[in-house]
Amino acid sequence: MKSLVIGFGSIGKRHSSLLKNHLGHDVTVVSKQTQLDYPVYSSLQKVPHIDQYDYYIIATETHLHFEQLSFLNNAVRDKFILVEKPLFMTPNSIKNNQNHIFVGYNLRFHPLLMYLKNVLSTEKILCMDVVAGYYLPEWRKTDYRQSYSAESEKGGGVLYDLSHEIDYLQWISGEIVQTHSIQAYHSDLEIKADDITIAIGKTTKNVLFMLHIDYISKIKIRTCLVHTNKATYWADLIQGTLRKKHRGLPEEVLSWDQQEKNATYLAMHTSILKQEKNACTFDEGIKTLETIQKMQSHDGDPLS
Fold this sequence. Notes:
The protein folds into two domains: 2-103, 3-Layer(aba) Sandwich (Rossmann fold); 107-258 and 282-297, 2-Layer Sandwich (Dihydrodipicolinate Reductase, domain 2). The protein has 304 residues and is of the alpha/beta class. It has helices at 10-21, 65-75, 111-120, 136-139, 158-161, 164-173, 261-273, 282-297; strands at 2-6, 26-30, 40-41, 55-58, 80-83, 100-103, 125-133, 176-184, 196-203, 208-214, 221-228, 231-236, 241-246, 252-255, 280-281. The termini are far apart.
């Protein structure tokens, strides 16, 4: 299978390596960098016979996604295209979509979240508390001030950068239809973007939620607390543990072996290419952007 990876920053390098070394793909890269371990072209427009590839990965900065996806969608037909998260800066449509387009929310393939998705499908969810916090200077391997995370105009800021949490919240509990949020730059980080967002709201399945995401937590945090009519679940995605307590029964603790981050990416690629159902679709990626817009504008329907 032949794959074209557009962009060769940290995430583009990860995709290229996984596709070549783990899935056996013949990988070509689009990047302004030269002397790579892959055939490389400086732009999409310079790739000869662009329809020869089976799988396309857009792994550039967010503000470039729409233009690059539009180009690909006009140039190829019935191909698999993965756009790194978030899909775009705003929820733009793609005219005459003629490909299978997905969004890179690989956290859906964390075994703990897959377990929750399955078990909660048979229970009435009452509310969810979703938290994610990373200290930006320690999270980014390069100077955080030079990363895309530091600039909202390039798709940075926690609301875009940690939109994994919005995606999986909606994946499990339904689309967010009512929300009120505080989005702020609130710390001494040298960035031009939000470093904390706190939101509350309700989904189409009548699930109440609280969302807290930030760049300021010196302890890595990624947790999800779920209350249903039958039980309470508390998931720690960093530690790979799940505490669950059904009413009238003792508490149980489940654990998963700590997986390499690559495992979720490999599972996502495999799911897309096998046309399975868990990967985030284009339409779902648009819904996440619509939710981000609601939180940015603070104009979601009033809570009732």
